[in-house]
Amino acid sequence: MPGYYPIFLNLSGKRCLVVGAGQVARRKIASLLEAGASVVVVSPEADERVRAWAAEGRLTWKKKKFEPGDLEGCLLVIGATGDREVNRQAFRAAEEAGLLANIVDDPELCNFYLPAVVQRGEFQVAISTGGASPLLARRVREDLEKRFGPDFGELVGAAAELRQWLRERVADPGKRRAFWEDFIDLEYFYSLHGGDLAGQLRERAQKCLSRLED
């Protein structure tokens, strides 16, 4: 069996359907909202939090049973109803429409899997077992969360600023690559905790640039 193609999707403004609105569906909805998706929920009933999101205008709640027409304009669909037959209908309709579909806790009814994710701002690490063992993926995520602390989000932001800073000082692409090879040191990054992180990174960047010019 071929492996899966890992990808990070830009869902900002994209229409995504969630079939179901219970506790499990709520977690999936929260992730989609965090990614900036335009979320449509189809379910006769809804979790209190989902109702609140709908009242706040953060999502569209269609208080009814799923129909294939609900997929119109959607990029992906997540089924989390607890009713396997309804989930199966949603998956089949999505497959026929050529859409991405994930049915919670049913690997056979998925053409993509949602990984366990470590997220620190723009820094993200995704772990997947192809639906075989979500618990293993979760345990690995928990382990990585200890290694990659909140500061890694700030590191990514600092790296983005340093790219422009470096371009203004070093014209040679080969030398810029040498700078990054010197600057990116995971053991050093692991040792950074709190304080003036941006200042520490600027100081390190200046030392790396000085070594490059020697």
What CATH architecture of the largest domain would you give? 3-Layer(aba) Sandwich
> Could you give a short account of the major beta sheet?
5 strands, parallel
Summed up, the domain count is 2
The spatial strand order of the largest sheet comes to: 3-2-1-4-5
Q: Give the overall form.
A: elongated
- Order of helix and strand elements from N to C terminus: EHEHEEHEEEHHHHH
Oligomer: single chain
Secondary-structure-based class equals alpha/beta
Number of helices: 8
Span between termini: 52 Å
Q: Examine the coordinates and then state which fold CATH places here, giving the name of the CATH topology of the largest domain.
A: Rossmann fold
Number of strands: 7
Please name the fourth-level CATH homologous superfamily of the largest domain.
NAD(P)-binding Rossmann-like Domain
Rounded to an integer, what's the Rg over CA atoms?
22 Å
What integer is the average pLDDT? 91
| Beta-strand content estimate | 5-15%
Low-confidence segments, given as residue ranges, are none
Helix content: 40-55%
Report what the structure shows.
- The chain has about 210 residues and is of the alpha/beta class.
- It has two domains: about 100 residues, NAD(P)-binding Rossmann-like Domain (Rossmann fold); about 60 residues.
- The chain has eight helices and seven strands; from the N terminus they run E-H-E-H-E-E-H-E-E-E-H-H-H-H-H.
- A five-stranded parallel sheet has the order 3-2-1-4-5, sandwiched between helices. A two-stranded antiparallel ribbon has the order 6-7.
- Strand 4, helix 3 and strand 5 form a beta-alpha-beta unit.
- Helix 5 packs parallel to helix 8 and helix 6 packs across helix 8.
- The chain starts with 14 loop residues before the first strand and ends with a helix.
- About 25% of the residues are buried.
- The mean pLDDT is about 90.
